[in-house]
Protein backbone atom coordinates (compact mmCIF):
# COMPACT_ATOMS: atom_id res chain seq x y z
CA UNK A 1 0.00 0.00 0.00
CA UNK A 2 1.36 3.40 -0.92
CA UNK A 3 1.39 5.61 2.10
CA UNK A 4 1.17 9.30 1.52
CA UNK A 5 0.80 10.73 4.94
CA UNK A 6 4.37 11.66 5.71
CA UNK A 7 3.80 15.02 7.39
CA UNK A 8 6.58 17.39 8.37
CA UNK A 9 6.45 20.30 10.76
CA UNK A 10 8.75 23.12 9.70
CA UNK A 11 9.73 25.52 12.45
CA UNK A 12 12.00 28.51 11.77
CA UNK A 13 14.01 29.50 14.84
CA UNK A 14 15.96 32.65 15.47
CA UNK A 15 17.49 32.95 18.92
CA UNK A 16 14.88 30.67 20.40
CA UNK A 17 16.95 28.86 23.04
CA UNK A 18 14.41 29.81 25.69
CA UNK A 19 11.44 28.23 23.96
CA UNK A 20 12.93 25.30 22.05
CA UNK A 21 12.98 22.75 24.89
CA UNK A 22 9.29 23.29 25.57
CA UNK A 23 8.31 23.60 21.90
CA UNK A 24 10.12 20.42 20.95
CA UNK A 25 8.52 18.45 23.80
CA UNK A 26 5.01 19.58 22.89
CA UNK A 27 5.42 19.05 19.16
CA UNK A 28 6.96 15.65 19.72
CA UNK A 29 4.08 14.41 21.85
CA UNK A 30 1.52 15.63 19.30
CA UNK A 31 3.35 14.01 16.40
CA UNK A 32 3.98 10.73 18.23
CA UNK A 33 0.36 10.56 19.18
CA UNK A 34 -0.69 10.88 15.55
CA UNK A 35 1.92 8.33 14.47
CA UNK A 36 0.67 5.79 17.02
CA UNK A 37 -2.88 6.22 15.79
CA UNK A 38 -1.65 5.68 12.24
CA UNK A 39 -2.82 9.08 11.08
CA UNK A 40 0.61 10.08 9.85
CA UNK A 41 3.49 7.89 8.78
CA UNK A 42 6.37 6.88 11.03
CA UNK A 43 8.80 8.82 8.89
CA UNK A 44 7.08 12.11 9.71
CA UNK A 45 9.47 14.69 11.10
CA UNK A 46 9.73 17.88 13.06
CA UNK A 47 12.19 20.08 11.22
CA UNK A 48 13.80 23.00 13.03
CA UNK A 49 15.46 25.60 10.84
CA UNK A 50 18.10 27.62 12.59
CA UNK A 51 18.13 31.06 11.02
CA UNK A 52 21.74 31.93 11.82
CA UNK A 53 21.14 32.42 15.55
CA UNK A 54 24.00 33.65 17.70
CA UNK A 55 22.79 31.84 20.82
CA UNK A 56 22.53 28.13 21.63
CA UNK A 57 19.64 27.44 19.26
CA UNK A 58 21.61 25.18 16.93
CA UNK A 59 23.22 23.27 19.81
CA UNK A 60 19.76 22.53 21.18
CA UNK A 61 18.51 21.40 17.77
CA UNK A 62 21.53 19.14 17.29
CA UNK A 63 21.04 17.46 20.64
CA UNK A 64 17.34 17.00 19.95
CA UNK A 65 18.19 15.26 16.68
CA UNK A 66 20.68 12.99 18.44
CA UNK A 67 18.11 12.02 21.06
CA UNK A 68 15.20 11.24 18.77
CA UNK A 69 14.97 10.59 15.07
CA UNK A 70 11.65 12.40 14.85
CA UNK A 71 13.66 15.63 14.85
CA UNK A 72 15.66 17.00 11.97
CA UNK A 73 17.53 20.25 11.67
CA UNK A 74 18.51 22.67 8.95
CA UNK A 75 21.19 25.20 9.76
CA UNK A 76 21.40 28.39 7.75
CA UNK A 77 24.79 30.04 7.46
CA UNK A 78 23.40 33.54 8.07
CA UNK A 79 20.40 35.20 9.55
CA UNK A 80 18.19 35.53 6.50
CA UNK A 81 14.89 36.38 8.12
CA UNK A 82 11.81 34.40 8.94
CA UNK A 83 10.46 34.06 5.39
CA UNK A 84 13.71 32.78 3.94
CA UNK A 85 14.32 30.42 6.84
CA UNK A 86 10.82 29.06 6.40
CA UNK A 87 11.30 28.58 2.67
CA UNK A 88 14.59 26.77 3.28
CA UNK A 89 12.84 24.36 5.63
CA UNK A 90 9.92 23.83 3.27
CA UNK A 91 12.22 23.11 0.35
CA UNK A 92 14.03 20.47 2.39
CA UNK A 93 10.73 19.00 3.55
CA UNK A 94 9.48 18.89 -0.05
CA UNK A 95 12.02 16.16 -0.87
CA UNK A 96 10.64 13.75 1.70
CA UNK A 97 7.24 14.82 2.91
CA UNK A 98 3.77 14.52 1.46
CA UNK A 99 2.79 17.65 3.32
CA UNK A 100 4.49 20.24 5.47
CA UNK A 101 3.02 22.44 8.17
CA UNK A 102 4.87 25.64 8.99
CA UNK A 103 4.60 27.17 12.43
CA UNK A 104 6.45 29.53 14.75
CA UNK A 105 8.85 28.31 17.38
CA UNK A 106 7.36 30.40 20.17
CA UNK A 107 4.16 28.34 20.55
CA UNK A 108 2.01 31.30 19.51
CA UNK A 109 0.45 29.16 16.82
CA UNK A 110 -1.78 26.80 18.74
CA UNK A 111 -0.18 23.37 18.38
CA UNK A 112 -3.48 21.67 19.20
CA UNK A 113 -4.68 22.70 15.73
CA UNK A 114 -2.00 20.63 13.97
CA UNK A 115 -4.24 17.61 13.78
CA UNK A 116 -6.98 19.62 12.08
CA UNK A 117 -4.51 20.63 9.39
CA UNK A 118 -3.59 16.97 8.89
CA UNK A 119 -7.27 16.00 8.73
CA UNK A 120 -7.94 18.56 6.00
CA UNK A 121 -4.89 17.33 4.11
CA UNK A 122 -6.10 13.74 4.33
CA UNK A 123 -9.45 14.95 2.98
CA UNK A 124 -7.52 16.01 -0.11
CA UNK A 125 -6.84 19.71 0.44
CA UNK A 126 -3.55 21.00 -0.91
CA UNK A 127 -3.23 24.20 1.07
CA UNK A 128 -4.73 24.74 4.51
CA UNK A 129 -4.51 28.21 6.01
CA UNK A 130 -4.44 28.78 9.74
CA UNK A 131 -6.54 31.83 10.55
CA UNK A 132 -6.64 33.44 13.98
CA UNK A 133 -10.06 33.41 15.51
CA UNK A 134 -9.45 36.37 17.82
CA UNK A 135 -6.83 38.97 18.48
CA UNK A 136 -7.56 39.31 22.17
CA UNK A 137 -4.07 38.40 23.28
CA UNK A 138 -2.60 41.26 21.25
CA UNK A 139 -1.97 44.76 22.49
CA UNK A 140 -4.26 47.44 21.08
CA UNK A 141 -1.29 48.78 19.15
CA UNK A 142 -0.45 45.45 17.52
CA UNK A 143 -4.10 44.85 16.76
CA UNK A 144 -4.66 48.18 15.04
CA UNK A 145 -1.38 48.06 13.12
CA UNK A 146 -2.17 44.54 11.98
CA UNK A 147 -5.62 45.61 10.79
CA UNK A 148 -4.09 48.56 8.92
CA UNK A 149 -1.51 46.22 7.44
CA UNK A 150 -4.08 43.87 5.90
CA UNK A 151 -6.20 46.79 4.67
CA UNK A 152 -3.19 48.39 3.02
CA UNK A 153 -2.00 45.11 1.56
CA UNK A 154 -5.32 44.38 -0.08
CA UNK A 155 -5.72 47.95 -1.27
CA UNK A 156 -2.30 47.78 -2.86
CA UNK A 157 -3.23 44.67 -4.76
CA UNK A 158 -1.39 42.03 -2.74
CA UNK A 159 -4.06 39.50 -1.97
CA UNK A 160 -3.59 38.12 1.47
CA UNK A 161 -5.93 36.26 3.73
CA UNK A 162 -6.75 38.40 6.74
CA UNK A 163 -5.37 37.17 10.06
CA UNK A 164 -3.47 34.38 8.43
CA UNK A 165 0.22 34.51 9.21
CA UNK A 166 2.50 31.66 8.29
CA UNK A 167 0.74 28.84 10.09
CA UNK A 168 -0.29 26.70 7.14
CA UNK A 169 -0.13 23.28 5.59
CA UNK A 170 1.07 22.73 2.06
CA UNK A 171 0.93 19.44 0.20
CA UNK A 172 3.88 18.18 -1.79
CA UNK A 173 2.49 19.43 -5.04
CA UNK A 174 1.78 22.84 -3.56
CA UNK A 175 5.38 22.92 -2.36
CA UNK A 176 6.56 21.87 -5.81
CA UNK A 177 4.57 24.75 -7.24
CA UNK A 178 6.02 27.11 -4.65
CA UNK A 179 9.50 26.06 -5.68
CA UNK A 180 8.76 27.48 -9.13
CA UNK A 181 8.63 30.98 -7.68
CA UNK A 182 12.21 32.08 -8.02
CA UNK A 183 12.00 35.54 -6.54
CA UNK A 184 14.40 36.78 -3.94
CA UNK A 185 11.98 39.14 -2.19
CA UNK A 186 9.94 36.53 -0.54
CA UNK A 187 6.49 37.21 0.80
CA UNK A 188 4.96 33.79 1.30
CA UNK A 189 1.60 35.12 2.42
CA UNK A 190 1.17 36.79 -0.94
CA UNK A 191 2.58 34.01 -3.08
CA UNK A 192 0.84 30.99 -1.61
CA UNK A 193 -2.67 32.22 -2.53
CA UNK A 194 -1.41 32.63 -6.12
CA UNK A 195 -0.65 28.93 -6.36
CA UNK A 196 -4.26 27.86 -6.40
CA UNK A 197 -5.30 24.24 -5.80
CA UNK A 198 -7.93 23.22 -3.31
CA UNK A 199 -7.67 25.17 -0.08
CA UNK A 200 -9.29 25.21 3.30
CA UNK A 201 -9.09 27.11 6.56
CA UNK A 202 -8.42 26.03 10.13
CA UNK A 203 -9.30 28.52 12.87
CA UNK A 204 -7.05 28.67 15.87
CA UNK A 205 -6.39 30.83 18.87
CA UNK A 206 -3.09 32.60 18.93
CA UNK A 207 -1.40 32.59 22.31
CA UNK A 208 1.13 34.85 23.92
CA UNK A 209 4.75 34.17 23.14
CA UNK A 210 5.84 31.32 25.40
CA UNK A 211 9.14 32.92 26.40
CA UNK A 212 11.68 35.40 25.10
CA UNK A 213 10.71 38.41 23.07
CA UNK A 214 9.40 39.04 19.59
CA UNK A 215 11.96 38.99 16.81
CA UNK A 216 9.66 41.24 14.83
CA UNK A 217 9.99 44.77 16.17
CA UNK A 218 8.01 47.57 14.54
CA UNK A 219 10.87 48.42 12.20
CA UNK A 220 11.03 44.87 10.83
CA UNK A 221 7.24 44.79 10.58
CA UNK A 222 7.17 47.97 8.49
CA UNK A 223 9.83 46.73 6.12
CA UNK A 224 7.95 43.43 5.93
CA UNK A 225 4.80 45.31 4.90
CA UNK A 226 6.62 47.36 2.28
CA UNK A 227 8.32 44.22 1.01
CA UNK A 228 4.98 42.47 0.82
CA UNK A 229 3.33 45.21 -1.17
CA UNK A 230 6.16 45.84 -3.57
CA UNK A 231 6.89 42.20 -4.20
CA UNK A 232 3.30 41.30 -4.98
CA UNK A 233 2.04 44.24 -6.97
CA UNK A 234 2.98 47.14 -9.20
CA UNK A 235 -0.02 49.12 -8.02
CA UNK A 236 2.13 51.82 -6.37
CA UNK A 237 3.53 52.59 -9.83
CA UNK A 238 0.04 52.75 -11.31
CA UNK A 239 -0.87 55.23 -8.60
CA UNK A 240 1.84 57.60 -9.84
CA UNK A 241 0.30 57.43 -13.30
CA UNK A 242 -3.14 58.16 -11.90
CA UNK A 243 -1.93 61.16 -9.91
CA UNK A 244 -0.13 62.48 -12.98
CA UNK A 245 -3.25 62.08 -15.07
CA UNK A 246 -5.31 63.82 -12.41
CA UNK A 247 -2.91 66.78 -12.23
CA UNK A 248 -2.83 67.09 -15.98
CA UNK A 249 -6.62 67.10 -16.12
CA UNK A 250 -6.75 69.78 -13.44
CA UNK A 251 -4.37 71.93 -15.47
CA UNK A 252 -6.61 71.61 -18.53
CA UNK A 253 -9.65 72.56 -16.46
CA UNK A 254 -7.73 75.51 -15.03
CA UNK A 255 -6.73 76.53 -18.54
CA UNK A 256 -10.35 76.61 -19.69
CA UNK A 257 -11.41 78.39 -16.52
CA UNK A 258 -8.77 81.07 -16.83
CA UNK A 259 -9.49 81.47 -20.52
CA UNK A 260 -13.10 82.20 -19.69
CA UNK A 261 -12.07 84.68 -17.01
CA UNK A 262 -9.64 86.26 -19.45
CA UNK A 263 -12.45 86.73 -21.94
CA UNK A 264 -14.52 88.40 -19.26
CA UNK A 265 -11.46 90.49 -18.42
CA UNK A 266 -10.75 89.78 -14.75
CA UNK A 267 -7.18 88.42 -14.92
CA UNK A 268 -4.09 89.28 -12.94
CA UNK A 269 -1.17 89.43 -15.35
CA UNK A 270 1.25 86.49 -15.23
CA UNK A 271 -0.56 84.49 -12.55
CA UNK A 272 -2.47 82.28 -14.96
CA UNK A 273 0.58 81.14 -16.87
CA UNK A 274 2.45 80.25 -13.70
CA UNK A 275 -0.36 78.24 -12.11
CA UNK A 276 -1.22 76.40 -15.28
CA UNK A 277 2.37 75.53 -16.09
CA UNK A 278 2.86 74.38 -12.49
CA UNK A 279 0.03 71.89 -12.69
CA UNK A 280 0.58 71.05 -16.33
CA UNK A 281 4.28 70.35 -16.07
CA UNK A 282 3.88 68.57 -12.73
CA UNK A 283 1.22 66.39 -14.25
CA UNK A 284 3.26 65.59 -17.33
CA UNK A 285 6.31 64.72 -15.24
CA UNK A 286 4.33 62.34 -13.05
CA UNK A 287 2.65 60.83 -16.06
CA UNK A 288 6.04 60.25 -17.67
CA UNK A 289 7.34 58.72 -14.45
CA UNK A 290 4.32 56.47 -14.37
CA UNK A 291 4.92 55.33 -17.93
CA UNK A 292 8.55 54.57 -17.18
CA UNK A 293 7.45 52.91 -13.96
CA UNK A 294 5.06 50.73 -15.90
CA UNK A 295 7.98 49.37 -17.92
CA UNK A 296 10.13 49.02 -14.82
CA UNK A 297 7.24 47.11 -13.27
CA UNK A 298 7.12 44.81 -16.28
CA UNK A 299 10.85 44.22 -16.03
CA UNK A 300 10.44 43.57 -12.34
CA UNK A 301 7.80 40.95 -12.98
CA UNK A 302 9.90 39.37 -15.73
CA UNK A 303 13.09 39.04 -13.71
CA UNK A 304 11.18 37.18 -11.04
CA UNK A 305 10.70 34.37 -13.52
CA UNK A 306 7.50 33.31 -11.89
CA UNK A 307 5.75 30.29 -13.36
CA UNK A 308 3.17 31.32 -15.88
CA UNK A 309 0.91 28.45 -14.97
CA UNK A 310 0.69 25.56 -12.59
CA UNK A 311 -0.99 22.42 -13.79
CA UNK A 312 -3.32 20.81 -11.33
CA UNK A 313 -4.02 17.63 -13.25
CA UNK A 314 -3.81 16.22 -16.76
CA UNK A 315 -6.28 13.87 -18.35
CA UNK A 316 -5.41 11.61 -21.19
CA UNK A 317 -6.45 8.26 -22.60
CA UNK A 318 -8.91 7.70 -19.87
CA UNK A 319 -6.39 8.09 -17.09
CA UNK A 320 -5.97 11.03 -14.76
CA UNK A 321 -2.69 12.08 -13.28
CA UNK A 322 -3.42 13.82 -10.06
CA UNK A 323 -0.48 15.15 -8.13
CA UNK A 324 1.80 12.43 -9.50
CA UNK A 325 -0.60 9.68 -8.49
CA UNK A 326 -2.05 7.68 -11.33
CA UNK A 327 -5.77 7.26 -11.06
CA UNK A 328 -8.29 5.46 -13.15
CA UNK A 329 -10.44 8.00 -14.88
CA UNK A 330 -14.01 7.05 -15.41
CA UNK A 331 -16.42 8.85 -17.64
CA UNK A 332 -19.69 9.44 -15.88
CA UNK A 333 -21.57 7.01 -18.09
CA UNK A 334 -19.12 4.19 -17.27
CA UNK A 335 -19.51 4.95 -13.60
CA UNK A 336 -23.23 4.75 -13.91
CA UNK A 337 -23.33 1.52 -15.80
CA UNK A 338 -21.17 -0.21 -13.18
CA UNK A 339 -23.40 1.02 -10.41
CA UNK A 340 -26.44 -0.11 -12.35
CA UNK A 341 -24.93 -3.56 -12.77
CA UNK A 342 -24.30 -3.74 -9.05
CA UNK A 343 -27.87 -2.73 -8.38
CA UNK A 344 -29.24 -5.33 -10.72
CA UNK A 345 -27.06 -7.98 -9.03
CA UNK A 346 -28.40 -7.00 -5.64
CA UNK A 347 -31.89 -7.36 -6.97
N1 LIG B 1 12.36 34.14 13.03
C1 LIG B 1 13.37 33.73 12.17
N2 LIG B 1 14.26 34.66 11.70
C2 LIG B 1 14.20 35.98 12.04
C3 LIG B 1 13.14 36.40 12.90
C4 LIG B 1 12.24 35.46 13.37
O1 LIG B 1 13.47 32.56 11.82
O2 LIG B 1 15.04 36.76 11.59
C5 LIG B 1 11.40 33.15 13.53
C6 LIG B 1 11.24 33.09 15.03
O3 LIG B 1 12.20 32.23 15.62
C7 LIG B 1 9.83 32.57 15.20
C8 LIG B 1 9.12 33.14 13.97
O4 LIG B 1 10.13 33.50 13.05
O5 LIG B 1 9.77 31.17 15.12
C9 LIG B 1 8.25 34.33 14.31
O6 LIG B 1 9.00 35.33 14.98
P1 LIG B 1 8.46 36.10 16.26
O7 LIG B 1 7.68 35.17 17.13
O8 LIG B 1 9.60 36.77 16.91
O9 LIG B 1 7.50 37.18 15.61
P2 LIG B 1 6.06 37.66 16.14
O10 LIG B 1 5.30 36.43 16.50
O11 LIG B 1 6.32 38.52 17.30
O12 LIG B 1 5.47 38.37 14.97
MG1 LIG C 1 5.86 35.05 17.72
Task: Give a brief description.
The chain is of the alpha/beta class and 347 residues long. 51% of the residues lie in helices and 16% in strands. Strand 1, helix 1 and strand 2 form a beta-alpha-beta unit.
Give the arrangement of secondary structure elements.
Elements lengths: L6 E7 L6 H17 L8 E6 L6 H11 L3 E5 L6 H15 L2 E4 L11 H9 L4 E6 L7 H16 L8 E8 H7 L9 H8 L3 E6 L13 H15 L2 H30 L6 H33 L9 E4 L2 E4 L2 E4 L3 H15 L1
Parallel strand pairs: 1-2, 1-4, 2-3, 5-7
Antiparallel strand pairs: 4-6, 5-6, 8-9, 9-10
Bound molecules: uridine-5'-diphosphate (UDP) and magnesium ion.
The site of magnesium ion (MG) has 5 residues, from loops.
Give a verbal description of the structure:
The two termini are 33 Å apart. This protein has helices spanning 20-36, 57-67, 82-96, 114-122, 140-155, 172-178, 188-195, 218-232, 235-264, 271-303, 332-346; strands spanning 7-13, 45-50, 71-75, 99-102, 127-132, 164-171, 199-204, 313-316, 319-322, 325-328. It is built from eleven helices and ten strands. The strands form two sheets. It has a seven-stranded mixed β-sheet, with helices on both faces. Strands 8-9-10 form a three-stranded antiparallel β-sheet, with no helix packed on it. The chain folds into two domains: 7-217 and 310-342, Alpha-Beta Complex (Spore Coat Polysaccharide Biosynthesis Protein SpsA, Chain A), CATH 3.90.550; 235-303. The chain is elongated. 51% of the residues lie in helices and 16% in strands. Helix 9 (235-264) packs antiparallel against helix 10. Bound molecules: uridine-5'-diphosphate (UDP) and magnesium ion. The site of uridine-5'-diphosphate has 17 residues, from strand 1 and helix 3.
